[in-house]
Amino acid sequence: MKDTPAPLRHSVSTWQQPLPPPASATRTALVDDLTNRILASGPARLRVGVDGLTAAGKTSLGHELAQRVAAAGRPVLRASLDDFKRPWSERHQYDRTSGPGYYRNAFDLPAIRTLLLEPAGPAGSGACVLCLRDPLTQRVHTDVVTPAPPDAVLIVDGVFAFRPELDDLWDYRIWVEVAAELSVRRGVARDGDREGVAAAEALHRDRYLAAQRVYLAEADPLSRVDAIVDNTDFARPRLLPR
After folding, report:
1. Taking a C-beta distance cutoff of 8 angstroms, is the pair 84, 112 a contact?
2. Domains of the chain: total
3. Is residue 132 part of a domain?
4. Helix (H, G, I), strand (E, B) or coil at 100
5. CA dihedral for 49, 53, 55, 56, sign (positive or negative)
């Protein structure tokens, strides 16, 4: 680790989840292990995807990895696929509320490729847009360009990251594993105050979990990941066999 951490650049989105609480010794060791594996992937720009069920803990792990990679001296860009969804104003034009509809239609896949992942690649321009559209304000931020130095590491969390339309653009893939019912329970606990408990459970069970089942069946992302993290217990995560 270098004495002076490298820069860590975040998206301008207002949809920001807080940093996780101080980690246990077990979790710190796992994050350090993953960080070393990522850095061993090469000295050029790297694109790291953190995928998994909704509320599995993708964002928290992404934050932890970003801090550790920056502390190791590599510049870091931090982004979320939630900031690359199609506008709500156009939702009448397509199905976005069913499980299959959410998987197929909610995200702007061409924008993820051309504005975020391609520029962040080893042969890319380095001119990265970390937020297409703010999920809360719906403001478009394509004018906010964050430069990625030649040795930068882009860390992106989000569902469906390893779908066929994006899968060729990742240099390191991490899957955060939790049981389906735990995903629903965590999602309801997170969103119940905002949505109402009954509505939040319907949202997570009938849309998000249903969408994940389509994704898992069609894309088989676990067959291509570099690491699987069992995040059932946040304080005691563990790496699973691939």
Report:
1. yes
2. 1
3. yes
4. helix
5. negative
Q: Is residue 16 part of a domain?
A: no
Looking at residue 207, its pLDDT comes to 97
Collect all residues with Cβ–Cβ distance below 8 Å to 168 and sequence separation of at least 6.
Answer: none
What CATH number did the domain enclosing 147 receive?
3.40.50.300
152-178 burial code (b ≥16 CB/10 A, e <16): bbbbbbbbbbbbeebeebbbbbbbbbb
Beta bridge partners of 174: 50, 227
Beta bridge partner(s), residue 80: 157
* AA letter at 22: P
**What is the rounded CA–CA span in Å between residue 215 and residue 210?**
9
Domain that holds residue 56: 26-230
What one-character-per-residue DSSP string does 156-177 give? EE-TTTTSTTTGGG-SEEEEEE
How is residue 70 written in tokens?
A: 């920056």
Ramachandran angles phi, psi of 107, nearest 5°? -105, 145
Going residue by residue through the chain (242 aa), what tens digit of pLDDT does each one get? 565 889 999 999 999 888 888 889 999 999 999 999 999 999 999 999 999 999 999 999 999 999 999 999 999 999 999 999 999 999 889 999 999 999 999 999 999 999 999 999 999 999 999 999 999 999 999 999 999 999 999 999 999 999 999 999 999 999 999 999 999 999 999 999 889 999 999 999 999 999 999 999 999 999 999 999 999 999 999 999 98
Q: Which amino acid is at 67?
A: Q
Flag whether 143 is in a domain: yes
Burial label for 83, CB within 10 Å (0-12, 13-18, 19+), is: buried
